[in-house]
Design brief:
The structure is a single chain. The chain has 333 residues and is an alpha/beta fold. It has one domain: TIM Barrel (Alpha-Beta Barrel), CATH 3.20.20.210. The strands form 2 sheets. It has a 7-stranded parallel sheet. A two-stranded antiparallel ribbon has the order 2-3. Helix 4 crosses helix 6, helix 5 crosses helix 6 and helix 6 packs parallel to helix 8. The model has no long low-confidence stretch (mean pLDDT 97).
Length: 333
């Protein structure tokens, strides 16, 4: 006998706890590049996305450069397939500038814009589904702010960089708290630098982990759901296992660590199963459904939310989104 139909909140809460669900939860996310600089427009787009597909969780989708523009970085829409903005002029040019960064106000400038946007979306969705604000790790923000000079600074001027990371961490805490107090139910915490292709373990333990933990520990009592996103290849999965988070998302279809391999290592919700770079945008429909079925088989449908490994290309056909939803429903019958 099938389990009684659950609400989005009941389904996510049960899945995080490893309890039985009526069906595996599902969430997809994409950028909205034409309107993501306008709070009302971004909120409306994210709400319309949710209303159209009725996902179990909303990952709010601000432009990915919002966190560095108040420090002087300049971004632009460069025609990325995923609709992501790119920094075209860094906001920091010398190592000596790291300790001079200002602690930004979360109610002003680009940060204030994003707090306003998520508040509007929260009001419109009226608590019917969990909504997570996207925030970035302090080291990720540093890279967005200064570019790849960060890798030279952490080896040549580590104390200066660490002074900047401390300021970025405090600003990130202030912003995260403002979003949670505006009604967000949790955080999507993205790190784009916990990768062996960028850092060794000792470097990440010094310049990544302490500042990640400073942010996550500060909001742990306020964030109902915290999803870690490990971006890129050859990620340092094991360094994140003791973070205060109950969801983990990474490129499982493009990684040497699949969902089955992660089951015994992370005790929270595994978020993935879809290849957002190849299968989801290109199909065919049966290949998309096959990935859903395989993800459920790898986990026996427990502690799993079907989702992409990262942002979905904006040209993905609507039928491919529907295929994901249909496959999840078919597996619950």
């Amino acid at each position: 006998m099938a389990a009684a139909k659950m609400t989005h909140w009941e389904r996510i809460t049960a899945a995080v706890a490893g309890q039985a669900v009526d069906r595996v939860p599902v969430s997809l996310w994409r950028h909205f590049p034409d309107i993501d600089l306008d709070p009302a427009g971004l909120a409306e787009a994210c709400v319309r996305w949710q209303r159209t597909y009725d996902f179990d969780l909303v990952k709010f989708m601000p432009g990915g450069t919002y966190g560095v523009e108040d420090w002087g970085a300049v971004s632009a829409d460069v025609g990325s397939p995923i609709g992501a903005r790119a920094v075209i002029r860094p906001g920091l040019a010398t190592a000596e500038a790291w300790p001079r960064l200002a602690r930004l106000s979360p109610t002003a400038g680009h940060l204030g814009r994003e707090v306003k946007a998520i508040a509007l979306a929260v009001e419109a969705l009226n608590g019917e589904v969990p909504i997570l604000q996207t925030v970035f790790s302090p080291l990720t923000t540093a890279i967005k702010l200064a570019g790849d000079r960060v890798f030279a600074d952490l080896r040549r001027h580590p104390d200066l960089l660490e002074a900047g990371l401390a300021i970025i961490a405090e600003t990130t805490i202030d912003f995260a708290r403002a979003c949670l107090r505006a009604g967000a139910h949790g955080l999507f915490f993205g790190t784009q630098c916990a990768s062996y292709r960028l850092l060794n373990e000792a470097e990440h333990r010094r310049f990544g982990v302490p500042y990640d933990r400073r942010v996550l520990d500060a909001v742990a009592g306020e964030s109902k759901f915290t999803m870690l996103h490990l971006h890129g290849n050859d990620v340092m999965f094991d360094q994140m296992l003791d973070y205060p988070a109950n969801m983990m998302n990474w490129h499982d279809r493009r990684s040497d660590l699949d969902l089955a391999g992660a089951m015994g290592r992370f005790g929270g919700l595994l978020v993935g199963g879809l290849n957002e770079a190849v299968t989801l945008p290109n199909g065919p429909i049966e290949a998309i459904k096959r990935e859903v079925r395989d993800a459920i088989a790898q986990t026996d449908g427990r502690r799993l939310m079907i989702a992409p490994g990262c942002v979905i290309p904006i040209a993905t056909p609507e039928a491919h989104y529907r295929a994901v939803i249909d496959a999840v429903s078919e597996m619950s019958r």
